Amino acid sequence: MNNAYCTYRSVQLLEGREASSKGRKDGPVSKYNIAIVIFEAAEEQDVVGPYECMAWATSFEKYVGQKVKTIREPQFESVFGKQCFPQQCANIFTVAATTAPLHMSSGMTFVADHTFDDPHLPEPDILIVPGGHGAHGCNGSYQNLIDNGTLPYIQRVGRSPRTKHIVSVCTGAFLLAEAGLLNGTYAMTYENMQPTFRQKYPQIKHVPNTPSNAKQNFIWDGRFITSNGPCSGLVSCFKLIEILTDADYKDLVKELLSYNAGKTTGLEVIRGRVKTCVV
Q: From CA 7, how far away is CA 159, in angstroms rounded?
């Protein structure tokens, strides 16, 4: 690959990230700054799934409101084939305590776009928090995530009136709960950790404990979407895309990502009652 192109592309990406709070587009999705928190031993799928989903939703947002069901190759290439395609997604970024490599839950290594004290860090409109081994705390203690600024950042952004939506994937709900953000809110987590979640955080409105609810992908209550296991992060983001745009565009993004699972379900809270919804 051409080294000059790689250097150019990297510089353009960096400049796009630094300017994202003021230079982003004003489209249906790109107008929102989307922060994905990462930390040591976060789950890869919890990060990459939502990132990819929201990046495609941003890149193809010109089709919002057009009720397009499928996109053919010329239309696809007009967006995806651009040389500097990643610049379109400057509104989406990862943030961590450090920009040193972080080892994820299943062994991959990630590097964050920003640190919590980065002067170029945009203020998020949407916050996404992954799970993974690192979301369980160290020997039951979250002191390491407090000391390195991860939990304080989640708490600050979660309490900000600017933050319109907060999504947790899998055991990322434990971090929202530790930050005190889920009190009085319906929430769920990975089904195999749900008993611990219920016991540890009684101040949360837990989803009724039924076999069908245990298999649901997410629950949406106000600003919060909390979800089940790692792949539920994709379904949660489909719901988020529907909230930000409409159901037709959400279906188009699913089609673009070859998500062929058909209609999947989650839970939503309507006037205080938990109901099933189709995504």
A: 38
